[in-house]
Amino acid sequence: MTAPRWVRRGPGIVGVGYAVMVPRGWVQIPGQLRPEMAFDAVVDQLGSVLGGEVPAEFARRVGSGLIEARAADVDGHVLDSYVTAGPLPDTGTTASIVVTVVPVVARSTDDLDLLLLGRVGRGATALGVGGEPAVVWSETDGGQPARDSPGRVVRRRTMLSRVTGQLDRLVSATLTVLETHERTTGTDGASDAVADALVELFDAMLTTVRWLDAEGRVITGR
After folding, report:
1. What CA–CA distance (Å, rounded) separates 25 from 211?
2. Measured between alpha carbons, how far is 77 from 144 in angstroms, rounded to an integer?
């Protein structure tokens, strides 16, 4: 008899991880692994997505980027990142989703609920993520150049969620849509349409999030 892969939400049940469905063509970059282990995971996924061996120069750039990212995350707040495997076809648009831990100081569940309600008062929309209260909001950067990247930010959308049983942290996921300088066709209106589609995809991904306990079981209210 196999052990159940789910556990009912209740006293003493604490979420320590999450699961999410990732669309084909996106690559997960693990944030909690050593750079060399994360590199192996990324290259394996890229080989599968690209249908063959990853070019050596591209692999070198990926490895260098992972080392720099890990060094910058001194507190280990980044859980994972998800990126498109290069620009989306015929659009010159790339996207990333960065999932991070947000430490908070709270004494009760009410404190975290009030924090999220405060975001609703500033234009965010309330929703549920994995059965927990959450908020989501969008912003545009007016076509401003992206920091350390050859392109401009078209859209950002951020989710902030409670985690089952946690009183000292929230989890944030931020989608960034970037138009690279390599785009050769289309108009700004087309870029907005692609960004809108990616926002819809991001929102759909949020509906698949499930919080996991220390044994890797899905926490459910059913």
Report:
1. 24
2. 26
Per residue in 74-125, pLDDT tens? 566 889 888 887 788 878 888 889 999 999 988 888 899 999 999 998 889 9
Type of residue found at 75: D
Pair of tokens at residue 179? 């138009």
Taking the C-alpha atoms of residue 5 and residue 16, their distance in angstroms, rounded to an integer, is 15
Amino acid at the residue 105: V
Give the residue from 176, 208, 218, 222 showing the smallest Cα distance to 20: 208
Using alpha carbons, list the distances in angstroms from residue 215 to 16, 130, 211: 9, 17, 11
Q: Angle of helix 35-50 relative to helix 56-72, nearest 10 degrees?
A: 140
Contacting residues for 174 by C-beta, under 8 A, at least 6 apart: 97, 98, 100, 156, 157, 158, 159
Note the pTM of the prediction, 2 decimals: 0.82
Are 134 and 116 a contacting pair, CB within 8 Å?
Answer: yes
By DSSP bridging, strand 6-8 and strand 218-220 are parallel
| Residues found in the chain | 222
